[in-house]
Structures are given as C-alpha cells and as structure tokens.
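Quick illustration, no need to memorize.
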Amino acid sequence: MRRRELWGWITVAVVLSALAIPWFLWGDDTLIAGVPLWLWWHVGWMGLASIVFWLFAQRAWGIGIEATPSSSESEPKGQRRSSNSAAWGDEP
C-alpha cells in the first residue's frame, strides 16, 4: 500500500511539473481581462500546485525516505524523538 501511495505522489509531481509551463499556449494571442491566456494558466496551475503540496504535507510527508518501515522500533528506548522534536535532535 505504501509503495502504491509513493508512486501516486511521484506521478502527481511529474504531471504538475510537466504542465506548470503551458508550452501548448505559447504563441496564442488570446487575452482574458487584458492578460494573456498563458499567464492565467500559469497562475491557476500554481494555485493548484499549492493545494496539492498542502495535501502532500498533511498526508504523506516523508513517504519514500524512511530507512525501514518500522524505524521507530529500532531506536534505543531513550533515543526516540517525539513528533514535535526538531529534525536534528535540538529542542524547539
């Protein structure tokens, strides 16, 4: 399940990156409210990308970079970090 989720997020990232620049609209003279259509595409796409990134941060942050599936069990008892501790062991 975790592997399928990882590949899903990779696919989403590739699609978001590939369509961030509207290559297919270059040379199009269409204006909407005085702004070129390609610029509207870019602004809208960046809005979509920010929503997708927020979803990723809420649901899957760290997916694919775990050392082992049960890395918290391999840490010595006194060495476990709480979910609120800083990444390098410094206290917040």
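The chain has a mean pLDDT of 78.
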